[in-house]
Amino acid sequence: MTQLPDVHPSGRLTNADLAPVQQRTWAWKDFLFLWMSDVHSVAGYMTVGTFFAMGLPVGSVLFGLLIAILTVQLLCNLIAVPSLRSGAPFPVIIRSVFGVYGAVIPALVRGIIAIGWYGIQTWLASNAVVLFLLRVLPSLTTYSDAHHYGFLGLSLLGWMAFLLIWSLQLAVFWRGMESIRHFIDWAGPAIYIMMILLDGVLLWKTHGQISFSVLPRSDLTIGQHLTGLLNVISLTIAFFSPIVLNFGDFSRYGVSIDAVKRGNFWGLPINFMAFSALALTTVTLTQPVFGKILIDPVETVTRLDSQTIMVVGILTFVVATIGINISANFVSAAFDFSNIAPAKISWRSGGIIASIGAIILTPWNLYARPDLIHFTLDVLGLFIAPVTGILLADYYLVQRQTLDIGALYSTDPAARYWYKGGLNPVAVWALILAVLVGLANVFIPALTAFQNFAWFTGFFSGLAFHLLLTRLTLVGGKASQQAS
To answer: b/e per residue, 248-259, with b = 16+ CB within 10 A?
Structure first.
């Protein structure tokens, strides 16, 4: 059992939600179910599905997914430590790097990205509801046409379904972290049952026959093959990068570091590869059954003849997507926005801000096609990855795993994390430079070859810039002292 920190902060940098947690109840299975909820979603299925449609050999894709998820596991184990030891969430921990006021910058970046993902996941779940309604009530087809009955690119029926899922998630979130823990404990495993049932039905329709040869296959040079493999690795890490960065929001509730690591082992490499195998099976079977490759599981379910399977399948996908959305996006955004003005914005108020922002972003315009999926992951990665690299470089290499918990909540200019006016210019400049590198890779045509490696370039440039600028600052400081 991890010893609880004997710190009771007060002042304008804290509130009941940002203060060190005093009760830890998350065992290893809760972290396993957390990852089940994060992996088992429509977005997760579609992302994995697009990899199998890239033209790479199946074995290469699976190898890339394994390397990526082992990297995610390692990063989460590292990110977990400071929050587990202090009991503080990510936006408070990042104060040790960026300063007690400067931490608003990376927390705001993470919060905005959480809003984007929250909206995307809500929209994907609402699509399932729309398809179900059209199947049961074909008369509603007119209202599903965004050109005649639509607003901001979404149909009237789409808006109704989106707001329904939006409201259900808000209701679960409002009940607090313990309710969220109980929800994801059963929401994550539910989709396994559904996918096994779905694969069983598809195999029955193909008389037990399955062949991966139906998947797209391109004649690739060694260089193209290697590039495709690296794309799979980078994009997979980018998909998980938001929850990797704020994993401390959950590890702070862990009963021990062993529980966190054990849950991450079963929830990431074991669970993710099992899910990928099921996704591969389902995508492969759609070709002989429907005559084309389908990467959207909701479309697959709605094309089946059985209305019972369709209803059960859609409900399962909706529940699973709500699970990932609340755990991976709602929780993080709530803490991040609360950190902007702790005395005025509570955790629940932060969640309200996030939910409203998810509507304003019109997420259906961000994840509608495979090329848009990959582009969205690239853009998310170039902002998230540098913060991750800077945080790990500072905690493990600069501060050598030391953490002054009281200073995380202090506005005293003599406190450890005050830096210069509450902001650490070294970390801020490292973030700016790393993001510029990522933006160049994504948007400058001459660097298009590096576009899908946005997470790698962002992570390592953020880490390198932070260590380099820290070193230069220390050398400059010593020179000034010697001159005086």
So the answer is: bbbbbbbbeeeb
User: How far, in Å, CA of 387 to CA of 376, rounded?
Assistant: 18
- Digit-coded pLDDT (tens) for 222-270: 888 888 898 899 889 988 888 899 899 999 999 999 999 999 999 999 9
Residues 6+ apart with CB under 8 A from 235: 47, 51, 374, 377, 378, 452, 455
Q: Which of 352, 22, 19 is nearest to 173 (CA)?
A: 352
Q: pTM here?
A: 0.85
Residue 150: its H or E element: strand 150-151
Q: Going by DSSP bridges, is the β-strand pair 150-151/154-155 parallel, antiparallel, or unpaired?
A: antiparallel
Q: In whole angstroms, what separates CA 136 from the centre of its chain?
A: 33
| Residue 343 CB-density burial (10 A; 0-12 exposed, 13-18 middle, 19+ buried) | exposed
- Which two structure tokens, joined as six digits, stand for 476? 């400059």
Strand partners, 151: 154
Highest mean pLDDT out of 66-80, 226-240, 289-303: 66-80
Token digits of residue 462? 């953020």
Both tokens of residue 166?
């939006």
Most confident of 77-81, 310-314, 335-339: 77-81
Render pLDDT for 40-55 as a digit per residue (tens, 0 to 9).
777 788 888 888 888 8
3-state secondary structure of 12: coil
What is the C-alpha to C-alpha distance for residues 455 and 463, in angstroms, rounded to an integer?
A: 12
The mean pLDDT of 208-231, rounded to a whole number, is: 85
Sequence letter at residue 23: Q
H or E stretch including 132? helix 104-136
Q: What is the CA radius of gyration of the chain?
A: 23
CA distance 68 to 260: 19
Supply 289's token pair. 């059954």
Count of residues making up the chain: 484
Dist CA 420 CA 164 (whole Å):
46
Compute φ and ψ for 277, nearest 5 degrees.
-65, -40
**Bridge partners for 150 per DSSP:** 155
Q: How many C-alpha atoms does 309 have within 13 Å on its Cβ side?
A: 20
What end-to-end distance do the CA atoms of the chain give, in Å? 50
User: For residue 5, is pLDDT > 70?
Assistant: no
Helix-helix angle 370-392:104-136, to 10 degrees = 150
93 contact partners, CB below 8 Å, separation of at least 6:
82, 83, 86, 248, 391, 403, 408
| Backbone torsions φ then ψ of 374, nearest 5 degrees | -65, -40
Q: Find out whether 123 and 140 touch, Cβ atoms under 8 Å.
A: no
Cβ(384)–Cβ(458) below 8 Å: yes
What is the tens place of the pLDDT at every residue in 117-155? Answer: 788 878 878 888 888 888 888 889 888 888 788 787 789
User: Measured between alpha carbons, how far is 416 from 99 in angstroms, rounded to an integer?
Assistant: 9
